[in-house]
Amino acid sequence: MAHPLSTISKIRAANKKAGHYFFSPKTMEFFNSKAYGIIKTTKAGAFFITSEIFQASDGSKEKTYKVRFCHLSGIIDTKEIGFKTYEEAKICLNLLN
């Protein structure tokens, strides 16, 4: 049997069903955010990676990657932040339980 949060699409649907807007187009656009398709499932939910691009007051932009956790209820928490590369975030994701 497939895990209920085995894909980004399933995580998006669970978050929306919970009444949250983590993946809404406006939220994703505001944070210049992207969710990546590598998922690590657990009994309690699933880890996944996002990236956000922040623009400083001087106009410079910085892309960071974060490891997030979606609970079976659809609520999303940030677990690890501040990775400079997708590969660093992926290594972290693979080490989490």
Structure description:
There is one protein chain. It is built from 3 helices and 5 strands; from the N terminus they run ααβββββα. The chain is α+β, with helices and mostly antiparallel strands and 97 residues long. The longest helix is centred in the first third of the chain and has 10 residues. A hairpin with a 5-residue loop joins strand 3 and strand 4. Strands 1, 2, 3, 4 and 5 form a 5-stranded antiparallel beta sheet that branches. It is globular.
Name the features.
alpha+beta; 36% strand; 3 helices; five-stranded antiparallel beta sheet; 97 residues
The beta-strand count equals: 5
Oligomer: single chain
Please tell me what the overall shape is.
globular
| Beta strand % | 35-45%
Q: Major β-sheet, in short?
A: 5 strands, antiparallel
- Helical content stands at 25-40%
Task: Tell me the distance between the termini.
Answer: 20 Å
Number of continuous helical runs: 3
State the order of secondary-structure elements, H for helix, E for strand.
HHEEEEEH
Integer average pLDDT: 93
Question: Low-confidence runs (pLDDT<50, min 5 residues)?
Answer: none
Instruction: Give the helix/strand class.
Output: alpha+beta
Radius of gyration, taken over Cα atoms and rounded to an integer in Å: 14 Å
